[in-house]
Each structure stands twice: as C-alpha cells, then as structure tokens.
Q: What sequence folds into this?
C-alpha cells in the first residue's frame, strides 16, 4: 500500500494493521516527525519515502526520497501498489485523492476534506471510508434494507461541559483537551467547535447519497453510528474507539482476526446522549442548508482552516472560528462548477478570512 500521513495517529494505526495482516508498504509519506518516520522505515522497508520539507532530507534514513506535494503525487503515480491510505490532514489531501483515482487505485480515505471540498468531482466508487462514523454506517448497511435516517455520533469535544459564558475565553490549550482521546491539533479543535462532525455529515452525504443525515453527542464514544430503518427499527454500531477496525476492513479482503475486544455493556453501565445545540456549537446552524447544497463545502472548509490558523496564532478567540466561517458562508454563495473552481474558491475564501 501507499500510506500518506504515516506519522499521524491514523497512519500509525494503519501500519499496525499492515504488520498484523502482513501487508507490504511501498510508499510512506510523512510530515516533519522524522524520528518516527525513520522507525517506520526500519520496520516496513518502503521503496519510496516522501517528506514535507527538503531541509529534512539529510535526516531521513532512506536512499529514495521525494519531497512535497509534487513528490507525493509522483510517488502515487509511480507505484504499483493498488491501495492508497490517505490520512493527510486538511485540504492538502484533495490532490492526492484525485491522483489516486486517476491511477485507478483503491482509496482508504481518512482525509474527509477530499469530499467536503471536492465531493462533486470525486468518484467515490473506489473509496472506502476509515472514519469510525462512516465505517459504522457502511457496516450497518450490510445487507441493505430501506433506510429512513442515518445518524453519526460526536464526543462533544473539549467544551461540551463548559458553562456557555466561559467559551469566549477558551484558549488553544483548552481546545486541545479532548475528553476521550488524543488526536492531532486541527481535528481536536474541529471536534471542540463541532466542525468535524459537520464535515463528517457532508462526507456521508457524498459517500452514501441523498437522504436524511444527523448527528448527536454520545459522551463515551462507544456508539459511532445509528440507522433508522423504514420498518421502525434502529440499529447501532458499537465498538471501542479505535481506527484499526475500519482500517482493517478497508485494506483487507477478509477480516477474520480479532481487531478489538467487544464492548462489555455491564462494565459500561450506561450511555449518555445529548443534542448538538447551536448556542454551544454555532456552526451547527448551517447544517441543514449545507446538506442541501453540499457543493458549498469548499467554502466552509477553506474558511475553517484559515480561521484556525488565526486562532492558533492567538489573533482571534475560539468562538470567532465559527463566526468567521459563518461570515464566509454568507459571503460566498456560488458553488464551484468544476474542480479548477474548487481550488480557486479555496484560495479566495482563505484570503477573505485572513482579512477579517
């Protein structure tokens, strides 16, 4: 396989599955965690390594190194591997997804922005989602019955229990204190604002087609997806929070080994569900409108990435992330008509938010 984003949490889990199922790793692409990359190189012996920065070349223990976005795209095109795991964070993952599709490779997709921003122009036929929520929906659809509604769950993020009046003072350090697990900076901030769940609903829309989608908070992160069927029954996908289960199904033709231990319901005791409220998560107010016009996802994604940069640089407060995204959404009202317009609109929206 080709693994893009090998040193992130999803990449690390993908390599654990590769080791368990004896899968070959042809390409490793990483950012700037060269120490971990070198450990991965030693264990998995990739043919090609891609890094983000030319300045790190001398630190990488491998003879065949490519650099940057161009290097990553060349590595995908030049590889005989039939599978690509795209675990890149943000809009930067869209071009590799498009390249993998053009090269007729199967994609295990964790880069939700590929579909959020470019869903109109991304062929999902060879895409298998490895977000827990989309995997849960897919799992529940086997075999298919007439559906009424698909629901995914959210943890609620770092501020789910904060008094509302404190949110205006929330710092970056506060936003990164996820209640259930440790993830990368951007996705943890997106979890705190509920942007991550909005993106996952858009991703579900592109993966599974038109229908009714929603999300609720489940504070233990044990239920990942629920489906209401036309007959009035509801099924839920429950598993311990681990990316290894969806990764294994995306990469392996058959999964007949134990990946996770089952959830012990007696030990769990109880579960708590909450609605996602707009006063705590302002971005949620555009959920229905965005699901009706999913092509405008590129606007929301670009504005969010630009606003997060400002938040990390301490130029704006936490609540301003959502407010600036909403401003951009109200300002840019035309959806892109082709993939080139996706990239142009992304640039325009980032420029707009930078000046707010």
A:
């Amino acid at each position: 396989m080709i693994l893009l984003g090998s040193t992130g949490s999803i990449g690390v889990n993908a390599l654990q599955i590769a080791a368990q199922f004896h899968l070959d790793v042809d390409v490793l692409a990483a950012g700037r965690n060269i120490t971990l990359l070198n450990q991965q190189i030693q264990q998995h012996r990739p043919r090609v390594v891609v890094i983000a920065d030319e300045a790190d070349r001398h630190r990488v223990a491998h003879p065949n190194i490519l650099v940057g976005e161009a290097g990553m795209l060349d590595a995908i095109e030049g590889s005989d591997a039939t599978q690509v795991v795209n675990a890149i964070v943000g809009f930067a993952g869209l071009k590799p997804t498009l390249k993998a599709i053009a090269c007729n490779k199967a994609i295990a997709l964790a880069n939700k922005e590929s579909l959020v921003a470019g869903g109109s122009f991304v062929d999902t036929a060879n895409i298998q989602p490895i977000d827990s929520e989309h995997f849960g929906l897919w799992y529940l659809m086997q075999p298919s019955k007439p559906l009424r509604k698909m629901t995914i769950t959210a943890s609620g993020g770092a501020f789910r229990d904060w008094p509302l009046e404190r949110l205006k003072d929330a710092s970056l350090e506060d936003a990164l204190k996820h209640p259930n697990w440790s993830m990368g900076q951007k996705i943890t901030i997106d979890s705190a604002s509920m942007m991550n769940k909005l993106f996952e609903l858009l991703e579900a829309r592109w993966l599974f087609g038109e229908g009714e989608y929603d999300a609720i908070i489940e504070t233990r992160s044990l239920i990942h997806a629920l489906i209401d069927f036309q007959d009035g029954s509801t099924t839920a996908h429950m598993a311990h929070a681990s990316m290894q289960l969806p990764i294994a199904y995306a990469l392996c033709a058959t999964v007949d080994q134990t990946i996770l231990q089952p959830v012990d319901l007696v030990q769990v005791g109880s579960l708590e569900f909450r609605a996602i409220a707009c006063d705590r998560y302002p971005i949620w107010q555009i959920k229905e409108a965005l699901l009706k016009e999913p092509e405008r996802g590129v606007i929301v994604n670009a504005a969010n990435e630009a606003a997060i940069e400002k938040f990390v640089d301490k130029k704006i407060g936490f609540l301003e992330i959502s407010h600036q995204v909403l401003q951009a959404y109200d300002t840019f009202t035309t959806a892109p008509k082709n993939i080139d317009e996706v990239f142009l609109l992304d640039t325009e929206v980032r420029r707009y938010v930078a000046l707010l």
The first strand starts at residue 2 and ends at 4. The chain has three domains: 2-130, 134-242+262-290, 293-356. The first helix runs from residue 9 to 20.
